[in-house]
User: What shape does this take?
Amino acid sequence: MTTEKVGVEDQNQASSKMAELLAKHHIYNIPKVGDLIEGKVISVSKSEVHLDIEGLGTGVIRGNELIDESGECSDLKIGEKAQATLLEMENELGQMELSFRSAGHQKAWDELERLLKDKKILDCQITDANKGGLMIRVNRIEGFLPVSQLTTEHYPRVEGGDKNKILEILSSYKNKKFKVRIIDVNEAENKLIVSEKEAHLEAQQQMLNKYKVGDIVEGKISGVVNFGAFIEFNDGLEGLIHISELAWQRIDNPKDIVKVGDNVKAQIISIEEGRVSLSIKKLKKDPWQEAINKYKIGQSVKGKVLKINLFGAFIELDKDIHGLAHISELSTKKINDPSEVVQVGKDYNFKILSIEPSSHRLGLSLKALKSKVDQVKQDPETTEIKQLDPKTEPKTDQATKK
Assistant: This one.
Protein backbone atom coordinates (compact mmCIF):
# COMPACT_ATOMS: atom_id res chain seq x y z
CA MET A 1 0.00 0.00 0.00
CA THR A 2 1.45 3.38 -0.93
CA THR A 3 2.10 6.18 1.51
CA GLU A 4 -0.48 8.34 -0.29
CA LYS A 5 -3.20 5.71 0.24
CA VAL A 6 -2.30 5.39 3.92
CA GLY A 7 -2.66 9.11 4.33
CA VAL A 8 -6.10 9.10 2.73
CA GLU A 9 -7.26 6.20 4.91
CA ASP A 10 -6.05 7.97 8.05
CA GLN A 11 -7.99 11.09 7.06
CA ASN A 12 -11.11 9.06 6.40
CA GLN A 13 -10.80 7.34 9.77
CA ALA A 14 -10.33 10.68 11.52
CA SER A 15 -13.38 12.14 9.75
CA SER A 16 -15.41 9.10 10.70
CA LYS A 17 -14.41 9.38 14.36
CA MET A 18 -15.22 13.14 14.33
CA ALA A 19 -18.66 12.41 12.80
CA GLU A 20 -19.32 9.80 15.51
CA LEU A 21 -18.25 12.27 18.20
CA LEU A 22 -20.47 15.03 16.79
CA ALA A 23 -23.41 12.64 16.49
CA LYS A 24 -22.90 11.41 20.05
CA HIS A 25 -23.03 14.94 21.41
CA HIS A 26 -25.67 16.14 18.96
CA ILE A 27 -23.31 18.68 17.47
CA TYR A 28 -23.71 18.99 13.76
CA ASN A 29 -22.15 22.39 13.07
CA ILE A 30 -18.64 23.19 14.21
CA PRO A 31 -18.48 26.90 15.12
CA LYS A 32 -16.19 29.23 13.23
CA VAL A 33 -14.34 32.34 14.31
CA GLY A 34 -16.83 35.15 14.92
CA ASP A 35 -19.71 32.87 15.92
CA LEU A 36 -21.60 33.32 19.16
CA ILE A 37 -21.42 30.17 21.28
CA GLU A 38 -22.83 29.21 24.67
CA GLY A 39 -21.16 27.44 27.58
CA LYS A 40 -21.40 26.75 31.31
CA VAL A 41 -19.23 28.76 33.70
CA ILE A 42 -16.70 26.47 35.41
CA SER A 43 -14.39 29.07 36.96
CA VAL A 44 -14.42 32.83 37.59
CA SER A 45 -11.58 35.15 38.61
CA LYS A 46 -10.77 38.83 38.10
CA SER A 47 -8.55 38.04 35.14
CA GLU A 48 -10.18 34.98 33.58
CA VAL A 49 -13.47 33.16 33.09
CA HIS A 50 -13.61 29.55 31.87
CA LEU A 51 -16.58 28.05 30.05
CA ASP A 52 -17.33 24.44 29.35
CA ILE A 53 -18.46 24.29 25.72
CA GLU A 54 -20.35 21.02 25.57
CA GLY A 55 -18.79 18.55 23.16
CA LEU A 56 -16.00 20.93 22.12
CA GLY A 57 -13.88 21.51 25.19
CA THR A 58 -13.00 24.48 27.36
CA GLY A 59 -13.06 28.13 26.40
CA VAL A 60 -11.33 31.01 28.15
CA ILE A 61 -12.16 34.74 28.32
CA ARG A 62 -9.38 36.95 29.61
CA GLY A 63 -7.99 40.49 29.66
CA ASN A 64 -9.91 43.14 27.77
CA GLU A 65 -12.23 40.51 26.38
CA LEU A 66 -13.94 40.33 29.79
CA ILE A 67 -15.45 43.80 29.21
CA ASP A 68 -19.14 43.42 28.43
CA GLU A 69 -21.18 46.38 27.08
CA SER A 70 -24.44 44.50 27.48
CA GLY A 71 -23.81 43.97 31.21
CA GLU A 72 -25.05 40.38 31.06
CA CYS A 73 -21.69 38.88 32.00
CA SER A 74 -20.63 41.40 34.63
CA ASP A 75 -21.53 39.20 37.61
CA LEU A 76 -21.26 35.58 36.53
CA LYS A 77 -21.44 32.65 38.93
CA ILE A 78 -20.21 29.06 38.53
CA GLY A 79 -22.83 26.88 36.91
CA GLU A 80 -24.52 29.69 35.03
CA LYS A 81 -24.66 29.77 31.26
CA ALA A 82 -23.01 32.53 29.28
CA GLN A 83 -22.52 33.46 25.64
CA ALA A 84 -19.25 34.55 24.11
CA THR A 85 -17.81 35.16 20.66
CA LEU A 86 -15.25 32.70 19.30
CA LEU A 87 -11.92 34.41 18.60
CA GLU A 88 -9.68 31.34 18.09
CA MET A 89 -10.44 27.62 17.89
CA GLU A 90 -7.30 26.78 19.86
CA ASN A 91 -4.83 28.93 21.78
CA GLU A 92 -1.41 28.05 23.18
CA LEU A 93 -3.07 25.99 25.93
CA GLY A 94 -5.32 24.09 23.59
CA GLN A 95 -8.38 26.04 24.73
CA MET A 96 -10.84 28.03 22.67
CA GLU A 97 -10.20 31.78 22.92
CA LEU A 98 -13.48 33.57 23.61
CA SER A 99 -14.71 37.17 24.07
CA PHE A 100 -17.46 38.69 26.18
CA ARG A 101 -16.65 42.13 24.79
CA SER A 102 -17.44 41.24 21.20
CA ALA A 103 -20.55 39.28 22.17
CA GLY A 104 -21.72 41.98 24.57
CA HIS A 105 -21.14 44.71 22.01
CA GLN A 106 -23.34 42.95 19.50
CA LYS A 107 -26.04 42.22 22.08
CA ALA A 108 -26.03 45.83 23.28
CA TRP A 109 -26.47 47.27 19.79
CA ASP A 110 -29.08 44.66 18.90
CA GLU A 111 -30.99 45.75 22.00
CA LEU A 112 -30.77 49.41 20.93
CA GLU A 113 -32.15 48.48 17.52
CA ARG A 114 -35.06 46.74 19.24
CA LEU A 115 -35.73 49.75 21.47
CA LEU A 116 -35.72 52.01 18.40
CA LYS A 117 -38.13 49.74 16.54
CA ASP A 118 -40.48 49.41 19.53
CA LYS A 119 -40.31 53.16 20.30
CA LYS A 120 -39.64 52.38 23.94
CA ILE A 121 -39.26 55.16 26.50
CA LEU A 122 -36.19 54.63 28.68
CA ASP A 123 -34.01 56.39 31.21
CA CYS A 124 -30.62 57.69 30.13
CA GLN A 125 -27.78 58.99 32.27
CA ILE A 126 -26.39 62.43 31.41
CA THR A 127 -22.60 62.07 31.46
CA ASP A 128 -21.39 65.40 30.03
CA ALA A 129 -22.35 68.41 27.91
CA ASN A 130 -21.15 70.51 25.03
CA LYS A 131 -22.63 73.55 23.27
CA GLY A 132 -24.63 71.33 20.93
CA GLY A 133 -26.25 69.07 23.52
CA LEU A 134 -25.75 66.35 26.12
CA MET A 135 -23.61 63.21 26.16
CA ILE A 136 -25.63 60.29 27.49
CA ARG A 137 -25.34 56.58 28.25
CA VAL A 138 -27.95 53.94 27.46
CA ASN A 139 -27.20 50.31 28.44
CA ARG A 140 -23.47 51.11 28.65
CA ILE A 141 -23.45 52.60 25.15
CA GLU A 142 -22.46 56.25 24.80
CA GLY A 143 -24.85 58.47 22.85
CA PHE A 144 -25.96 62.05 22.25
CA LEU A 145 -29.03 64.14 23.09
CA PRO A 146 -29.06 67.28 20.86
CA VAL A 147 -30.30 70.61 22.24
CA SER A 148 -33.05 70.58 19.60
CA GLN A 149 -34.41 67.35 21.10
CA LEU A 150 -34.80 68.70 24.65
CA THR A 151 -38.24 69.45 26.08
CA THR A 152 -39.19 73.06 26.76
CA GLU A 153 -38.51 72.36 30.44
CA HIS A 154 -34.82 71.71 29.81
CA TYR A 155 -34.26 73.81 26.68
CA PRO A 156 -31.61 76.48 27.43
CA ARG A 157 -33.36 79.80 26.86
CA VAL A 158 -30.56 82.31 26.56
CA GLU A 159 -31.08 85.80 25.19
CA GLY A 160 -28.87 86.43 22.19
CA GLY A 161 -27.89 82.76 22.02
CA ASP A 162 -24.75 83.19 24.18
CA LYS A 163 -23.01 79.82 23.73
CA ASN A 164 -21.17 79.99 27.04
CA LYS A 165 -24.41 80.52 28.96
CA ILE A 166 -26.04 77.71 27.00
CA LEU A 167 -23.19 75.39 27.97
CA GLU A 168 -23.54 76.46 31.61
CA ILE A 169 -27.21 75.46 31.64
CA LEU A 170 -26.55 72.17 29.84
CA SER A 171 -23.70 71.29 32.21
CA SER A 172 -26.08 71.62 35.16
CA TYR A 173 -27.87 68.47 33.92
CA LYS A 174 -24.78 66.28 34.36
CA ASN A 175 -25.44 63.07 36.35
CA LYS A 176 -29.21 63.52 36.05
CA LYS A 177 -31.51 61.02 34.34
CA PHE A 178 -33.83 62.03 31.51
CA LYS A 179 -36.58 59.96 29.96
CA VAL A 180 -35.84 59.62 26.26
CA ARG A 181 -36.70 57.71 23.13
CA ILE A 182 -34.07 56.47 20.66
CA ILE A 183 -34.39 58.16 17.25
CA ASP A 184 -31.23 56.94 15.46
CA VAL A 185 -28.94 53.91 15.83
CA ASN A 186 -25.94 53.11 13.63
CA GLU A 187 -23.52 50.50 14.98
CA ALA A 188 -21.10 50.90 12.06
CA GLU A 189 -20.70 54.61 12.86
CA ASN A 190 -20.98 54.02 16.61
CA LYS A 191 -23.86 56.51 16.62
CA LEU A 192 -26.71 56.64 19.10
CA ILE A 193 -29.08 59.65 19.09
CA VAL A 194 -31.92 60.06 21.59
CA SER A 195 -34.76 62.56 22.03
CA GLU A 196 -36.38 63.82 25.21
CA LYS A 197 -39.13 65.53 23.21
CA GLU A 198 -40.11 62.25 21.54
CA ALA A 199 -40.44 60.57 24.95
CA HIS A 200 -42.91 63.21 26.10
CA LEU A 201 -44.73 63.43 22.79
CA GLU A 202 -47.43 60.88 23.55
CA ALA A 203 -48.40 62.36 26.92
CA GLN A 204 -48.33 65.89 25.54
CA GLN A 205 -50.34 64.91 22.51
CA GLN A 206 -53.09 63.53 24.75
CA MET A 207 -53.34 66.89 26.52
CA LEU A 208 -53.23 68.75 23.20
CA ASN A 209 -56.21 66.76 21.93
CA LYS A 210 -58.33 69.21 23.92
CA TYR A 211 -57.20 72.05 21.67
CA LYS A 212 -57.50 72.96 18.01
CA VAL A 213 -56.13 75.63 15.70
CA GLY A 214 -57.96 78.90 16.29
CA ASP A 215 -58.46 78.39 20.03
CA ILE A 216 -57.53 81.29 22.28
CA VAL A 217 -55.48 80.48 25.38
CA GLU A 218 -54.35 82.60 28.28
CA GLY A 219 -51.04 82.07 29.99
CA LYS A 220 -47.80 83.48 31.31
CA ILE A 221 -44.64 84.29 29.38
CA SER A 222 -42.15 81.68 30.64
CA GLY A 223 -39.16 82.59 28.52
CA VAL A 224 -37.95 85.17 26.00
CA VAL A 225 -35.32 84.37 23.39
CA ASN A 226 -34.06 86.17 20.30
CA PHE A 227 -36.47 84.31 18.01
CA GLY A 228 -39.62 84.75 20.10
CA ALA A 229 -41.26 83.99 23.45
CA PHE A 230 -42.53 80.88 25.22
CA ILE A 231 -45.95 80.92 26.83
CA GLU A 232 -47.07 78.43 29.48
CA PHE A 233 -50.81 77.84 29.48
CA ASN A 234 -53.38 75.30 30.72
CA ASP A 235 -52.36 71.77 31.80
CA GLY A 236 -48.71 72.81 32.03
CA LEU A 237 -48.46 72.99 28.25
CA GLU A 238 -46.05 75.37 26.61
CA GLY A 239 -45.96 76.89 23.15
CA LEU A 240 -43.85 79.29 21.13
CA ILE A 241 -44.86 82.72 19.91
CA HIS A 242 -42.44 83.42 17.07
CA ILE A 243 -41.04 86.96 16.87
CA SER A 244 -43.08 87.52 13.70
CA GLU A 245 -46.29 86.70 15.63
CA LEU A 246 -45.74 89.03 18.58
CA ALA A 247 -46.91 92.23 16.85
CA TRP A 248 -47.85 93.61 13.44
CA GLN A 249 -44.94 96.01 13.31
CA ARG A 250 -41.32 95.06 12.68
CA ILE A 251 -39.56 93.79 15.84
CA ASP A 252 -35.83 93.48 16.43
CA ASN A 253 -36.00 92.25 20.01
CA PRO A 254 -38.94 90.29 21.52
CA LYS A 255 -38.17 91.93 24.88
CA ASP A 256 -39.47 95.18 23.40
CA ILE A 257 -42.93 93.57 23.36
CA VAL A 258 -43.07 91.03 26.24
CA LYS A 259 -41.11 90.01 29.32
CA VAL A 260 -41.03 86.92 31.54
CA GLY A 261 -44.04 86.84 33.87
CA ASP A 262 -46.37 88.81 31.60
CA ASN A 263 -49.92 87.46 31.40
CA VAL A 264 -51.00 87.33 27.76
CA LYS A 265 -53.68 85.94 25.48
CA ALA A 266 -52.69 84.18 22.29
CA GLN A 267 -54.29 82.24 19.48
CA ILE A 268 -53.17 78.75 18.48
CA ILE A 269 -52.06 78.84 14.84
CA SER A 270 -50.61 75.33 14.53
CA ILE A 271 -50.25 72.04 16.42
CA GLU A 272 -47.68 69.71 14.87
CA GLU A 273 -46.03 66.68 16.48
CA GLY A 274 -46.67 68.00 19.97
CA ARG A 275 -45.35 71.48 19.15
CA VAL A 276 -47.71 74.40 19.64
CA SER A 277 -47.30 77.68 17.77
CA LEU A 278 -49.25 80.73 18.90
CA SER A 279 -49.85 84.31 17.88
CA ILE A 280 -50.57 87.46 19.86
CA LYS A 281 -50.96 89.70 16.85
CA LYS A 282 -53.79 87.58 15.41
CA LEU A 283 -55.97 88.83 18.27
CA LYS A 284 -55.46 92.43 17.18
CA LYS A 285 -56.80 94.18 14.09
CA ASP A 286 -54.30 94.31 11.26
CA PRO A 287 -53.34 98.01 11.04
CA TRP A 288 -52.21 97.48 7.46
CA GLN A 289 -55.84 97.06 6.40
CA GLU A 290 -56.36 100.70 7.39
CA ALA A 291 -53.06 101.86 5.92
CA ILE A 292 -54.55 102.30 2.45
CA ASN A 293 -57.04 104.80 3.90
CA LYS A 294 -54.39 106.65 5.89
CA TYR A 295 -51.63 106.73 3.31
CA LYS A 296 -51.68 107.32 -0.46
CA ILE A 297 -49.16 106.76 -3.23
CA GLY A 298 -47.41 110.08 -3.97
CA GLN A 299 -48.09 111.41 -0.47
CA SER A 300 -45.30 113.20 1.41
CA VAL A 301 -44.83 111.80 4.93
CA LYS A 302 -42.43 112.23 7.81
CA GLY A 303 -40.76 109.10 9.19
CA LYS A 304 -38.07 108.05 11.65
CA VAL A 305 -35.17 105.83 10.59
CA LEU A 306 -35.35 102.66 12.71
CA LYS A 307 -32.66 100.53 11.14
CA ILE A 308 -30.12 100.65 8.34
CA ASN A 309 -28.72 97.77 6.32
CA LEU A 310 -26.85 97.44 3.03
CA PHE A 311 -29.96 97.60 0.84
CA GLY A 312 -31.77 100.50 2.51
CA ALA A 313 -33.39 101.97 5.59
CA PHE A 314 -36.45 100.88 7.57
CA ILE A 315 -38.69 103.81 8.35
CA GLU A 316 -41.35 104.16 11.07
CA LEU A 317 -44.31 106.19 9.86
CA ASP A 318 -46.33 105.42 12.99
CA LYS A 319 -46.39 102.78 15.73
CA ASP A 320 -47.75 100.04 13.48
CA ILE A 321 -46.75 101.00 9.93
CA HIS A 322 -43.13 100.70 8.88
CA GLY A 323 -41.80 101.14 5.36
CA LEU A 324 -38.59 100.62 3.42
CA ALA A 325 -36.59 103.24 1.60
CA HIS A 326 -34.36 101.29 -0.79
CA ILE A 327 -30.78 102.52 -1.13
CA SER A 328 -31.54 103.52 -4.72
CA GLU A 329 -34.29 105.86 -3.43
CA LEU A 330 -32.17 107.67 -0.86
CA SER A 331 -30.08 109.89 -3.09
CA THR A 332 -29.88 111.15 -6.66
CA LYS A 333 -26.18 110.31 -6.49
CA LYS A 334 -24.75 106.81 -6.27
CA ILE A 335 -24.05 105.76 -2.65
CA ASN A 336 -22.53 102.61 -1.20
CA ASP A 337 -24.10 102.82 2.23
CA PRO A 338 -27.46 104.33 3.36
CA SER A 339 -25.68 105.88 6.36
CA GLU A 340 -24.09 108.35 3.93
CA VAL A 341 -27.52 109.97 3.64
CA VAL A 342 -29.63 109.05 6.69
CA GLN A 343 -28.98 108.30 10.36
CA VAL A 344 -30.81 105.99 12.77
CA GLY A 345 -33.18 107.88 15.07
CA LYS A 346 -33.56 110.94 12.85
CA ASP A 347 -36.71 112.10 11.05
CA TYR A 348 -36.87 112.76 7.32
CA ASN A 349 -39.53 113.54 4.75
CA PHE A 350 -40.31 110.77 2.26
CA LYS A 351 -42.57 110.25 -0.72
CA ILE A 352 -44.72 107.10 -0.74
CA LEU A 353 -43.99 105.07 -3.87
CA SER A 354 -46.06 101.95 -3.18
CA ILE A 355 -48.46 100.40 -0.65
CA GLU A 356 -49.17 96.65 -0.40
CA PRO A 357 -51.39 96.05 2.67
CA SER A 358 -51.76 92.31 2.04
CA SER A 359 -48.00 91.75 2.17
CA HIS A 360 -47.34 94.54 4.72
CA ARG A 361 -45.04 96.49 2.43
CA LEU A 362 -44.68 100.20 1.88
CA GLY A 363 -42.05 101.71 -0.40
CA LEU A 364 -40.60 105.15 0.29
CA SER A 365 -38.31 107.58 -1.51
CA LEU A 366 -36.15 110.34 -0.12
CA LYS A 367 -34.66 111.40 -3.45
CA ALA A 368 -38.09 112.00 -5.00
CA LEU A 369 -38.61 114.95 -2.64
CA LYS A 370 -35.00 116.06 -2.79
CA SER A 371 -35.06 116.28 -6.57
CA LYS A 372 -37.98 118.75 -6.47
CA VAL A 373 -36.20 120.96 -3.94
CA ASP A 374 -33.01 120.85 -5.98
CA GLN A 375 -34.92 121.76 -9.15
CA VAL A 376 -36.39 124.86 -7.50
CA LYS A 377 -32.99 125.90 -6.18
CA GLN A 378 -31.50 125.60 -9.67
CA ASP A 379 -34.21 127.88 -11.20
CA PRO A 380 -34.08 131.26 -9.31
CA GLU A 381 -36.26 133.03 -11.92
CA THR A 382 -39.08 130.57 -11.24
CA THR A 383 -38.68 131.28 -7.54
CA GLU A 384 -38.87 135.01 -8.14
CA ILE A 385 -42.03 134.70 -10.26
CA LYS A 386 -43.83 132.72 -7.58
CA GLN A 387 -43.01 135.42 -5.01
CA LEU A 388 -44.45 138.32 -7.09
CA ASP A 389 -48.03 139.54 -6.88
CA PRO A 390 -50.01 138.01 -9.79
CA LYS A 391 -51.69 141.43 -10.41
CA THR A 392 -48.39 143.12 -11.37
CA GLU A 393 -47.99 141.53 -14.80
CA PRO A 394 -45.79 144.31 -16.33
CA LYS A 395 -43.25 143.83 -13.57
CA THR A 396 -43.29 140.10 -14.22
CA ASP A 397 -42.52 140.73 -17.92
CA GLN A 398 -39.78 143.11 -17.04
CA ALA A 399 -38.27 140.62 -14.62
CA THR A 400 -38.46 137.95 -17.24
CA LYS A 401 -36.70 140.07 -19.83
CA LYS A 402 -33.92 140.80 -17.41
